[in-house]
Design a protein that fits this description.
Elements: H1 2-37, H2 45-58, H3 63-87, H4 94-132, H5 135-141, H6 146-182, H7 189-199, H8 202-229, H9 237-264
Helix pairs in contact: 1-8, 2-6, 3-4, 3-6, 4-6, 4-7, 4-8, 4-9, 6-8, 8-9
């Protein structure tokens, strides 16, 4: 009996230490990535080229389909909110509610999830395979800084992509909100601008920018960190990808919940 309890506690202790080690490794990599990102010497023609390619594949390549999806989703949600507000005699609050729910909360989170599904799993797999095949060590052996030339451009490109797509989606949602609430009556733009300026106060705007920036970091830093932690066995690659996606989803939800708590509690 005691032997069984001791074995259970040993396994639980090892699991807990591995879990804590994963978070410690993630935080350490994120700190290193931020330091490199704000260091001017990081940027040269090679890193800028990789950043541009990352932005192209992560954001520009999906922009048409993403914009269409954003338009359809935003229109449906706006119609639901506006119709519900009218049914309850709250039409005066419909536009503000749409902006707060859609632009401030749902769209940034959906954008981050969209990029996570499209790019984060691929980044995680790529880095894990590089680790398994000793490509990272080979680069370092010939004097190539893998952090500077392989990982940081992905972090910067992915973060910029999340920021850019969130901005595009926000503009689309605001335009649709105006059309749904006011129709093609452009003389109501002053009233619309008043509501927008009320919602996007300086603290809210700064908080939104910080949240989207953290989303951008999460969808790139977490997959790379998990890929680097993968054991150098090929069959561990899918496990590393799954673990990275679960951790990424948890962090995205944690950022969103923290944002809501700061604003509304």
């Amino acid at each position: 009996m005691l032997e069984a309890i001791n074995g259970y506690l040993t396994r639980r202790g090892a699991t807990t230490l591995a879990w804590l080690g994963g978070w410690a490794s993630l935080i350490g990599f994120a700190a290193s990535a931020l330091i490199h990102a704000v260091t001017p010497s990081t940027y040269n023609s090679a890193t800028r080229s990789v950043v541009a390619k990352q932005i192209y594949f992560t954001a520009w390549q999906i922009l048409p389909g993403f914009s269409l999806f954003a338009t359809l989703l935003s229109f449906v949600i706006i119609r639901i909110v506006v119709s519900t507000a009218r049914d309850f005699g709250l039409s005066d609050y419909a536009l503000e509610t749409v902006i707060r729910v859609l632009v401030l909360e749902l769209l940034p989170l959906i954008t981050a999830l969209f990029i996570a599904l499209r790019s984060s799993a691929a980044i995680n797999t790529e880095v894990a395979l590089m680790n398994v095949h000793n490509e990272i060590k080979a680069l370092e052996d010939v004097g190539v800084d893998s952090m500077r030339f392989e990982f940081i451009p992905r972090v910067i490109g992915g973060t910029i992509s999340v920021l850019a797509l969130s901005a595009v989606r926000g503009v689309i949602a605001l335009a649709l909100a105006y059309l749904v609430v006011y129709g093609a009556q452009f003389w109501n733009f002053a009233a619309f601008s008043l509501v927008v300026s009320k919602v996007f106060s300086l603290p809210i705007l700064l908080g939104l920018s910080l949240k989207v920036f953290m989303f951008g970091l999460a969808v790139t830093v977490i997959p790379i960190s998990e890929g680097l932690r993968a054991p150098q066995k090929l069959f561990f690659v899918p496990i590393a990808v799954l673990r990275g996606m679960v951790r990424l989803f948890f962090v995205l939800m944690l950022i969103e919940v923290a944002s809501l708590a700061i604003k509304y509690i």
